[in-house]
Write a structure and sequence with these properties.
- This protein has five helices and eleven strands; from the N terminus they run βαβαββαββαβββαββ.
- It is α/β, with parallel strands linked by helices.
- It has two domains: about 90 residues, Glutaredoxin; about 130 residues, Glutaredoxin (3-Layer(aba) Sandwich), CATH 3.40.30.10.
- The strands form three sheets. Strands 5-7-6-8-9 form a five-stranded mixed beta sheet, with helices on one face.
- β6, α4 and β7 form a beta-alpha-beta unit.
- The two termini are about 20 Å apart.
- The C terminus is likely disordered.
Length: about 260
């Protein structure tokens, strides 16, 4: 696999991907267990990326050591940490798939409000009973609104879906949709007029209201008049506050190449 042939966030299947370097002994030690997994795994697809041939891509994926084995599902990733046996890898996959199912279950909401069309609405309907939504690996931009005024409802739906599209979201049931932009954050909406939603419990007393939820900071509130361009600027500013990732150091090979010299990635 390589950057051009890599699982997209819209992929229907979980993918297990190993990042390796052919001149690193640990990658060779892990080879048999990983190949046994590939021959036996069910419910997921299996691939591998050669970090000698795909240096920049491995750096962009945050690979600090090889082999790194990662399960990827709907744009979410989780790394394996254990012995490279078929049994340990299978257990990791089973646990991860179940974890992702639980996260998806937490997003199910019967109070669809303005965002009930899974083929057209890129904004996800959220319920206060399952709040906040899972924040791994991406933050959320959430609009709290009151349904009832047709003109305002139409404007709100259009504005939130437009913003969701700009940040790389796809309608959840449009599984064959291609992301034209990198998915930076997820966009959701809570219908506070629905009887099952208790927005006051979340401290939301003014509607419409927009909040930004992330793992790196307390929820941030957009406290100006609702305008899609200004809300996008608010979200962009919060994304810039995200702590910068550690600089990835070059992977060092510990086996000689054909010339007899050890290589450095």
């Amino acid at each position: 696999m390589c950057e051009r042939h890599f699982p997209e966030a819209s992929s229907k299947h979980p993918w297990v991907v190993q990042f390796y370097h052919p001149l690193v002994q640990k990658a060779h030690d892990a080879k048999d267990g990983y190949e046994q997994l590939a021959a036996a795994v069910e419910g997921a697809k299996v691939g591998a990326v050669d970090c000698k041939e795909n240096q920049e891509f491995c750096v962009s994926q945050g690979i600090r050591d090889v082999p790194t084995t990662r399960i990827i599902s709907s744009g979410r990733g989780r790394d394996f940490d254990g012995e490279y046996t078929k049994e340990a890898l299978q257990s990791f996959i089973h646990e991860s798939v179940q974890r992702y199912k639980d996260m998806d279950e937490a997003l199910k909401c019967d109070a669809k409000g303005l965002f009930s069309d899974g083929m057209k609405d890129s904004t996800i309907a959220l319920c206060t009973s399952n709040f906040p939504p899972p924040l791994e690996p991406l933050p959320w931009l959430v609009s709290f609104y009151e349904k009832g005024d047709l003109n305002k409802d139409k404007t709100m739906r259009k504005a939130m879906n437009k913003m969701a599209d700009k940040f790389g979201n796809n309608p959840p049931k449009k599984v064959d949709a291609k992301n034209k932009k990198t998915l930076k954050l997820r966009v959701g909406g809570v219908d506070c007029s629905h009887k099952s939603n208790d927005c006051e419990k979340l401290g939301v007393t003014t509607l419409p209201s927009v909040r930004f939820y992330s793992t790196w900071a307390e929820p941030a509130v957009f406290d100006s008049f609702f305008d899609s361009d200004e809300v996008k600027q608010f979200a962009d500013a919060r994304l810039k506050d995200k702590p910068k990732a550690e600089k990835i150091e070059a992977l060092k090979a510990d086996m000689p190449d054909k010339s007899g010299k050890a290589e450095e990635l």
